[in-house]
Amino acid sequence: MIDCIGDEYMNRTELQLIYKERDKMLVAVQECNAELAKKIFFQLEKDETIKRLGIINRIESNQLRSVKNFMLSYNTQYFMAGLRGNLDIMVAHRLAESFAVMIEDSQSVIDLQEIMIMMLETYSDSKYRVIEENDVQISDKVDNFIEQEFMNQITISQIAQQFNMNKEYLMRVYKKEKSMTIHDKITIRRIQEAKKLLQYTHLSILEIAMSIGFSTSQYFSTTFKKMCGFSPTEYRKNC
Questions:
Q1: What contacts 194, CB < 8 A, 6 or more positions away?
Q2: What number is the average pLDDT over the span 212-225?
């Protein structure tokens, strides 16, 4: 049986092979194997799979919108694959929302390709997976909590309360285990997220600041420049 898809004719065997590889990629995400997931993606891209399946022309005269729709569907599939591999539900929700915003704000297919790689790497990252409590150091528990809550205006006192620990003791233990302060960890994570939003979205500086837990855009800009050596606006221009 021959199916007319995209600009070419594809037979049933070819379609089955493509979807088999797609399923392997999702399993790789589930199993935290980012390298395998990317290898499969690059091969599918080399084979012009999107074009051959007709995805790029699903919306006539708007290839970018067609690819965005494709990316949004894969964002959901990676989300579900991660959950099957014990991806933390709070982290998974935040990742899915963040990537959806980046996809919608993208202005080129090249940007979308970069976001696809970022999705594969992030959803496959083992540090976001739920593990047995007995195997987790307190500093790792704090890191997991920060990953879930860094976009909110969390304090060290709130973190200490979360784990029923003395604030000063928690700060000492964390610094000993991680060689940095809890405050520095929160700030670093926020700036990492800010860089992605500056590069892949058109959100204003104020909107970005508010979305990652800073109380004001001025404080965000000052912190960003202190850590990166240039302002958020300068960073965005140079991306």
A1: 208, 209, 212, 220, 224, 232
A2: 96
Same domain, 117 and 12: yes
For 31, residues 6+ apart whose C-beta sits below 8 A from its C-beta are 85
Cα(183)–Cα(171) distance, rounded to whole angstroms?
9
pTM of the model: 0.75
d(CA 213, CA 209): 7
Domain membership of residue 191 as a residue range:
134-238
Judge whether 220 and 209 are in contact, CB under 8 Å. yes
Q: Do residues 70 and 105 touch, judged by C-beta distance below 8 A? A: no
pLDDT of residue 15: 82
Domains held by the chain: number: 2
Give per-residue pLDDT as tens, 84-104.
999 999 999 999 999 999 999
Same domain, yes or no, for 113 and 151?
Answer: no
